[in-house]
Amino acid sequence: MTSDRKDATGDIEAIRKGFETRGYICNAHIATSIFLAEKLQKPLLVEGPPGVGKTELAKATAEMVGKPLIRLQCYEGLDEAKALYEWKYGKQLLYTQVLKEKLGDLMTGAQGLKESMARLHDFDDTFFSEEFLEPRPLLKALWQPGGAVLLIDEIDKSDDEFEAFLLELLSDYQISVPELGTIKARTAPIVFLTSNNTREIGDALKRRCLHLYIPFPDTDLEQRIIAARVPEMEERLRNQLVAFVQGLRQLELKKLPAVSETIDWARTMVLLHARELDADLVRNTLNVLLKFQDDIDNVDGEVNALVSKAVQAG
Amino acid sequence: MSEVLGDFIRALRAADVRVSTSESIDAGNVIDLVGFNERETLRDALSQVLAKSDDEKQAFLETFDTFFAFDQFKEKPASVNEPAANENEQDEQADGGEGEEGEGGESSGADGPSSPGGGGQGGERQGEGPRPRDDLVSLLERGDQAALQMALAEAARQANLNRIRLFTQRGMFTRRIMELMGLDGLNEEIERREQARNTDGAAQLMQAREELRGQVRDYVEKQLEIFTANSGRQLREEVLSKMRLSNVDRSDMRIMRELVRKMAKRLIAMHSRRKKIARRGTLDVRRTIRANIEFDGLLFHTIWKRTKVDRPKVMAICDVSGSVAQVSRFLLMFLYSLQEVLPNVRSFAFSGELGETTEMFERERLEQALALVLRDFGGGSTDYGRAFEDFQSLAMNDIDHRTTVLILGDARSNYGDPRADILKLVHARARRVIWLNPEPRSMWNSGDSEMRRLAPYCDRAITCASLKDLERVVSDLLRTAV
């Protein structure tokens, strides 16, 4: 046990490095959660404001562990037919037609109804077997040989019933198909759930998951992220840009710019061949960063102060 | 599960973090995985298993920092420094102690069976009760802080310090821990030295004893703080929520505000799930076919289309005149919180004139908004007739069959015509009219109260004097909103 413990820090560091080589920059906290999710075989519920890289985390993990990423986007009205499995009706119908005559052959010589029934029973489940099952993301993740990374995106958008339905999958990695019985995972998948907190997730679900909250990154982390994602940007401009965005997050805005917006903005700057942050440039490109006209209007007055502060910091 | 973890979870629960049994087990597994060696890693890891919302994360971090802070002995000046390396057994103990530097190591002193470095001696120590007197004496003389810390933690465990609940228990626990650490032996030794005219030695030990006492007291204080972090506040909240709103003291305003906010949040969390009802008569073809595949396409089991139920539209009218000033502060507070979480709340305030306060609540912070409302609408003499007239011109057209109208006031109209006819109109259009009166029912209809004339046009007219009442009413309102 003691040796395991010593490895833990090393393992976590290795995970962080692994992410870094794949362009996903994160801190030890996030790496720890991946480590735990893998070791404890528990689903990981990731919360945080939009655009901080929740979905990206699942993608990076899939790439790192070398397993396919299976993604289920949640929305209102999502039900098990779309999330779990569906019968291939067409195929079933076709087979029934084709096999009709065979069925006649089968029945010939049967004495009375009882025996015909008995003969039929022998072939009972032919049409409700795995052959005719169309796996949807959840079932696919369970069936994937060698395991998979399952991403259940924006769980808060789905209905309560669906949330409850997930409980069996998340705690035991198995699901029940009435016609077939219980299907267990061949290899337990690594499960990510993301939520933007548009509604409170149920306690039962939370209890089964590890819980990770990803906040906006601090200056240092954000600089590293931009460096990794937009490597062609000069360091000086990068520092200014990050300082500006960090300053922007201190303001009262409807929607604060997230990392994804910072990256977009950095790309814009590179396209415009900008070398230095100045107030006009910022004003002209502010719509990349802010998505509400109200916010843009509000920030307009502050731009000069923020820019000069950012230039100093850079 | 180790005892440290148990204590930690108890401390978390005291700090309002809900930890279920299965989560405790997870936490045990996490500790097996990451161990006590890296404080940061342990904190990160445990926070993901035990704290599952923003508030809880915050509380977790605070509790973690206080709980795993073992610094009593570190600040102590190294006054007692005589090496007494003639007793083997103690040497071992000292080594064990020194080997486990850092918070994690020390905490595991109380960890008994699973303490990492202390296998042998831990077993020996357990259940042994007070250890030989010379133990403590030599520990003090050597000034071995790590070992002292471990001895203290172990004594605290035996004394069941984690059961401490009241500050009056501090003295008792301090004494008991001192005794368990070997106070008697220490006293005897001091006496013996005095008799042997070794005054220096005796004085030195006495000083060490006093220092130790101080440290133990600090430790007990800290534990008390950890395990009862919230109980005082919880008690006060409990009392306040049942107290009549008009009797709440101004000094409790801050707590009340917090309570109101919490309550609104809880209500919304409970009712935010959008309800669906079946619309009889419209078949949901897709779902029906899907459901009947197992019957070979025969439609045994029909599924009907369902419509979502919209959240209730609420219009709240709040009396802010002098007679209900105390209560209206809370009602406004509650309205404000409600408006933050419910999308369709329009609020109005009046004493003489009535005006809409929806925007004010949206724009301003709570204190500011309350002050503004009271300035603009408060203080005048109540005139329900006028207020209803204003309400009619402002909002009557927006009242429809989904609107709930909530009126908060004492119905004392200074003998003016309360214009019950307008309320009748409102009642006819609205889904529901609810009147919350801060006065007890026996006071209704006395003096200038017009409840008798107004109540017939309310679907419900009830007394609402405390936060508990308010919560019940609003919960009801949200639940039955169809």
Any overview of this molecule?
The complex is a heterodimer of chains A (314) and B (482). In chain A, the strands form three sheets. In chain A, strands 2-5-8-1-9 form a five-stranded parallel β-sheet, with helices on both faces. In chain A, strands 3-4 form a two-stranded antiparallel ribbon. Chain A has helices at residues 2-21, 28-40, 54-65, 80-83, 89-107, 112-122, 137-143, 160-172, 203-208, 219-229, 235-248, 259-271, 279-289, 293-300, 303-313, and strands at residues 44-47, 69-73, 85-87, 133-135, 149-153, 174-177, 181-184, 190-195, 210-213. Mean pLDDT of chain A is 85; it is low at 1-5. Chain A is 55% helix and 12% strand. In chain A, a hairpin with a 3-residue loop joins strand 6 and strand 7. Chain A is an alpha/beta fold. Chain B has 482 residues and is an alpha/beta fold. Chain B contains 22 helices and eight strands. Chain B has helices at 3-14, 21-34, 39-50, 54-67, 88-99, 102-107, 119-125, 133-142, 145-158, 170-181, 183-195, 199-227, 231-242, 253-271, 285-291, 325-341, 358-363, 366-377, 384-395, 420-429, 451-454, 467-479; strands at residues 276-283, 304-308, 313-319, 345-350, 354-356, 403-408, 432-437, 460-463. In chain B, strand 3, helix 16 and strand 4 form a beta-alpha-beta unit. The model of chain B is unreliable at 74-133 (pLDDT under 50). The interface between A and B is medium-sized, with 37 and 33 residues.
Write the layout of secondary structure elements.
The complex is a heterodimer of chains A (314) and B (482).
Chain A: H1 2-21, H2 28-40, E1 44-47, H3 54-65, E2 69-73, H4 80-83, E3 85-87, H5 89-107, H6 112-122, E4 133-135, H7 137-143, E5 149-153, H8 160-172, E6 174-177, E7 181-184, E8 190-195, H9 203-208, E9 210-213, H10 219-229, H11 235-248, H12 259-271, H13 279-289, H14 293-300, H15 303-313
Parallel strand pairs in A: 1-8, 1-9, 2-5, 5-8
Antiparallel strand pairs in A: 3-4, 6-7
Chain B: H1 3-14, H2 21-34, H3 39-50, H4 54-67, H5 88-99, H6 102-107, H7 119-125, H8 133-142, H9 145-158, H10 170-181, H11 183-195, H12 199-227, H13 231-242, H14 253-271, E1 276-283, H15 285-291, E2 304-308, E3 313-319, H16 325-341, E4 345-350, E5 354-356, H17 358-363, H18 366-377, H19 384-395, E6 403-408, H20 420-429, E7 432-437, H21 451-454, E8 460-463, H22 467-479
Parallel strand pairs in B: 3-4, 3-6, 6-7, 7-8
Antiparallel strand pairs in B: 1-2, 4-5
